[in-house]
Amino acid sequence: MLSYIIKRILVAIPLLLAMSLLTFIFMQMTPGNFFDALKLDPQISPETIARYEKLYHLDKPLLVQYLQWVRNLFKLEFGYSFFYHVPVSSLIAGRLANTFILALASLLFTWLVALPLGIWAAVRRNEWSDRILSLSSFIFLSIPSFFLAMILLYLASQGGLLPLGGIRSANFDELSLFGQWLDLLKHLLIPTVVISLASIAALQRIMRGNMLEVLRQQYILTARAKGLPEERVIYRHALRNAINPLITLFGYELSGLLGGAALTEIICSWPGLGSLMLTAVRAKDIYLVMSSMLMGGILLLIGNLIADILLAWSDPRIRYE
């Protein structure tokens, strides 16, 4: 397993570099750059703009610009954000932490709700509870996340029990430790529910289908014929095989939550990486865009690697040679 992990890390390096190169090329193909807007400002002299372009190697050929960024990348220097006037590393660190909090909360909420519902629906196939869950899944899969976010924000504005945006209240620093945790949970509730509902609906249906397929297997019939308790048959024998395909989806689910949270972050005013990425693309802040895409690629590869490790741990038949 250790040699497999090392091999995956070594393969990931050229993949990440290729992704960053494509991002750089696409950004250069779009018209204009960040300094074009500054040239229209009469308070900024052409000498100042030329000095900034020379300082950040933007006056060099495109290949030289990219290679300079890659060389600094191996020194853990991600460049400078022209729009925010701070180093990209410090800017991404805070935003990535906020996005990770939201993604982790959504991931835990999704899996803790979807798996029991899927098992419940499979065990009670074609009963009224199974039909209600099936109908609810179709409804939540068809509702756009931005529309659901606006509905929940409207309901929160009418009730006044939940905040309408942001990550913390104005008096956050004055609260006790428990009060700060409670304030964070209140701000997390709406965006977490918005991101999770569609994932819960999809995972619940997948879990239900997997359980129904496993429950038809001969070894389940044998376990029941031996007189094993139904709970042991379901949760110890059937669940372990039914959950394997879902573990494979874990890596994509993690990266998908981090990438798919962008629209929800914007609507709910959550200061995460998604809203930062949108601002960076609109402002043509090239180093911030490239670093944000690089973080997304790293999280995708880490998620897939974790999924492979968990799959080998849960199923002794799987070995990576």
- Could you tell me how far the N terminus lies from the C terminus, measured between alpha carbons in angstroms? 8 Å
Q: What pattern of helices and strands is seen along the backbone?
A: HHHHEEHHHHHHHHHH
Mean pLDDT: 82
Q: What's the CATH architecture of the largest domain?
A: Orthogonal Bundle
Whole-number tally of structural domains: 2
Global geometry: globular
Number of H- or I-type helical stretches: 14
CATH superfamily of the largest domain: MetI-like
> In which range does the helix fraction lie?
over 70%
Strand content: under 5%
Number of separate strands = 2
| CATH topology term of the largest domain | MetI-like fold
Verbal overview:
With 321 residues, the protein is mainly alpha-helical. The model has no long low-confidence stretch (mean pLDDT 82). It is built from 14 helices and 2 strands. It has 2 domains: 13-77, no CATH class; 95-144 and 194-314, MetI-like (MetI-like fold), CATH 1.10.3720.10. Strands 1-2 form a two-stranded antiparallel sheet. The longest helix has 39 residues, at 177-215.
List keywords for this structure.
321 residues; mainly alpha; MetI-like fold; 2 domains; two-stranded antiparallel ribbon; 14 helices
